[in-house]
Amino acid sequence: MGVIEWLERYTSRLNSSRRYMKLGGLMFKHVLREGNVCADFLARLGRNSTLGVTTWVTPPNELLSLLNFDAFDF
């Protein structure tokens, strides 16, 4: 995917998010990486990657475990 295609996709998603925010259907909350094990996992994965951008159809198994753990607020 080229830079233009990536930017178009990102801009479209950002605009959709802004519309949801105006309707009161979306709220952003900043959480430090250390407090979000899923974000921390992805950041470490990205840091060790030689690829520019990685897209998954389904999350990696390690991330699925963390998502399940996070969903139940353990």
Automatic annotation (TrEMBL):
Mind telling me what this protein is named? Answer: RNase H type-1 domain-containing protein
